[in-house]
Amino acid sequence: xxxxxxxxxxxxxxxxxxxxxxxxxxxxxxxxxxxxxxxxxxxxxxxxxxxxxxxxxxxxxxxxxxxxxxxxxxxxxxxxxxxxxxxxxxxxxxxxxxxxxxxxxxxxxxxxxxxxxxxxxxxxxxxxxxxxxxxxxxxxxxxxxxxxxxxxxxxxxxxxxxxxxxxxxxxxxxxxxxxxxxxxxxxxxxxxxxxxxxxxxxxxxxxxxxxxxxxxxxxxxxxxxxxxxxxxxxxxxxxxxxxxxxxxxxxxxxxxxxxxxxxxxxxxxxxxxxxxxxxxxxxxxxxxxxxxxxxxxxxxxxxxxxxxxxxxxxxxxxxxxxxxxxxxxxxxxxxxxxxxxxxxxxxxxxxxxxxxxxxxxxxxxxx
Length: 367
Ligand code: CXF
Ligand code: ZN
Known about the structure:
This protein has helices at about 40-45, 95, 105-110, 160-165, 170-180, 195-205, 220-230, 240-250, 265-275, 300-305, 315-330, 345-355; strands at about 1-5, 15-20, 30-40, 65-70, 80-85, 125, 145, 150-155, 190, 210-215, 235, 255-260, 275-285, 305-310, 340-345, 360-365. With about 375 residues, it is α/β, with parallel strands linked by helices. The strands form three sheets. Strands 3, 4, 5, 7, 8, 15 and 16 form a seven-stranded mixed sheet that branches. Strands 11-10-9-12-13-14 form a six-stranded parallel sheet, with helices on both faces. A three-stranded antiparallel sheet has the order 1-2-6, with no helix packed on it. The model has no long low-confidence stretch (mean pLDDT about 100). Zinc ion binds near residues 40, 42, 61, 168 and 169. Belongs to the zinc-containing alcohol dehydrogenase family.
């Protein structure tokens, strides 16, 4: 069938709205009519070719929509079901079977290769196939053939125009707190970067009972927003060494948990240096392959600190997304405050506002 998609053609280039042919369903796919799709920093990283998905490509990996048709082998959803779309995983490897699909042995192939496992593409422009199945979805399009393992069924009546970011950015920030850190009540946490992932971590840290919530960002407007979301302290690295500021806030000790969401090596170093004895720093901010950071290792030894690389909040989307919806519906996890809606046709505005900090989580809506 014909679909309208926003095509990424070159690094930094504006999106091109094109009519493309969406293929027939593979047995493990279902066709989703998109209602909304979040914009994640990873989309921009891939457009700019920090990750190797070949261009031209249809990106987008925080889709939410309605199932129109299911492939032969699909069992978990039916036409008419509402779904949130998340990352893909094989379901067969040791890590998937251990409940850690974020560390699937086929993660890069399934989410970034731009092809189905059999090498075919779901999208064609009449001359050539385009990269598709990005995170099992490629949801910058009116319709997508989605891998069943990317799909989370959600209750009818829920507002799909809000739920897409639960599939990646919100899941990542909240999951890092709930699944990776598991902070005891009364803990201290510093969140470096208060975009959608960092803001979601701040919300989750409050649910988990953290007492000291420090937001670190270079944008004053973001720090103000972090306070409104419940941060107890804010740190502006332009106003002085953030490590020193965090030590001051914590009575000289440092924080038990630090989450690095920016992908900047220097910020990861600061996050590590901000830790208390036996603290944990989590890295969720994506950076280009080959990026390196150095750490102090002499005195660090006596601190016994831990570095955890965290993919997609250590979450199983089909378990965690419904839990986040439950918290949200009880008023305890207001992630909708992060969202700014844009019509799909304004996708370039959404990316611009995300890059310059004017929007925390743009969500494209399909009218
Ligand atoms: C990504 C970051 C790069 C590895 C896979 C997960 N996060 C999603 O945007
Ligand atoms: Zn993402």
